[in-house]
Specification:
With 254 residues, this protein is α/β, with parallel strands linked by helices. It has 2 domains: 11-73, no CATH class; 90-245, 3-Layer(aba) Sandwich (Rossmann fold), CATH 3.40.50.720. The chain contains 7 helices and 5 strands; from the N terminus they run H-H-H-E-H-E-E-H-E-H-E-H. It has helices at residues 11-20, 25-36, 43-73, 99-111, 145-158, 182-210, 231-245; strands spanning 90-94, 116-121, 134-139, 164-167, 214-217. Strands 3-2-1-4-5 form a 5-stranded parallel beta sheet, sandwiched between helices. The structure holds NADP nicotinamide-adenine-dinucleotide phosphate.
Length: 254
């Protein structure tokens, strides 16, 4: 999902424009074919032709890679299968009272205003859902395992079984390993890593039972390149990536 593309010049926006123009195989292939059968008049023409070949190969490779990634991540099934009905899906988004979680919620509702969205956060809502949409808000401290148990029971009985879980809530205390208190480290690991694990334990069984659902875990580049002062945060994001990969085909069934 492309986030925050409306907030000015972003990497997302640049890559989208490149994909639709220079690296679009549907444009690059016919143009390359035309130039392949033309006689080069100037040396510039030969250079342009070479550039077109390069764009064709790169664009096609990226498209095939994207297609293979999508199918493999989706267990080689269609994500837009007929049994996927956004008007009936129940989407739980943690940390959705603001930030990235709110953006995900708003984009899901923009796609289909009848999707049921459940926001779980300990911060109050910072955005107002549009009239006619159904957005439930549950206040919960996700660093507390027994609160998660109570929350899950409440969501199931009051809203229904979730079919999409977006583990987005996360925090970062920003202290060095030596400076950070026990409380900082515990809060970070419980919120960023243990809560997603427990929420999946709560909601996955029903998704498996009906063979229908999505689990989305929000990671971070810091899991690959951990900057100073956020060792605990980076470790939780590396952990969430490992946790997420258990759902990929070829690994043990969750
Ligand atoms: N923003 C980035 O540049 C970036 C980059 C890479 C990854 N991410 C990841 O993307 C996700 C969302 O980031 P964001 O920037 O949107 O963060 P955000 O604006 O701070 O939103 C996160 C929300 O989660 C809530 N939260 C934190 N701890 C909680 C807990 N124990 N129980 C319940 N709610 C809790 C926060 O409440 P409070 O505001 O009260 O703390 C906040 O409302 C996070 O997982 C983050 O690690 C963000």
């Amino acid at each position: 999902m492309t986030l925050r593309s409306r907030e000015g010049l972003t990497v997302d926006l640049v890559s989208r424009v490149l994909k639709q123009t220079a690296l679009n195989p549907w444009l690059a292939i016919p143009l390359s074919a035309c130039t392949a059968f033309s006689v080069p008049i100037t040396s510039d023409f030969a250079r342009v032709r070479l550039l077109l070949y390069f764009c064709t190969i790169l664009g096609t490779t990226l498209r095939v890679n994207e297609w293979l990634n999508k199918w493999s991540m989706n267990n080689w099934t269609r994500s837009d299968s007929p049994d996927w009905n956004w008007a009936k899906e129940v989407v739980v988004i943690t940390g959705g009272s603001g930030g990235i979680g709110a953006s995900i919620a708003q984009q899901i509702l923009a796609r289909n205003s009848r999707t049921t969205v459940v926001i779980v956060d300990y911060a109050p809502m910072t955005w107002t859902p549009k009239p006619g949409t159904y957005v439930a808000y549950y206040q919960c401290d996700l660093s507390n395992g027994s609160s998660i148990k109570t929350l899950a029971t409440q969501i199931r009985s009051e809203v229904g079984h979730p079919t999409v879980l977006v583990n987005n809530a996360g925090l970062c205390r920003g202290a060095t390993v030596m400076e950070g208190s026990y409380a900082d480290v515990e809060l970070t690991i419980k919120t960023n890593l243990i809560a997603p694990f427990l929420l999946v334990k709560e909601f996955l069984p029903h998704m498996v039972k009906i063979d229908h659902g999505h689990i989305v875990n929000i990671g971070s580049a810091s899991s690959l390149f951990p900057p100073a002062r956020i060792a605990d945060y980076a470790a939780t994001k590396a952990g969430i990536t490992a946790f997420h990969e258990v759902f990929l085909p070829g690994t043990d069934a969750p």
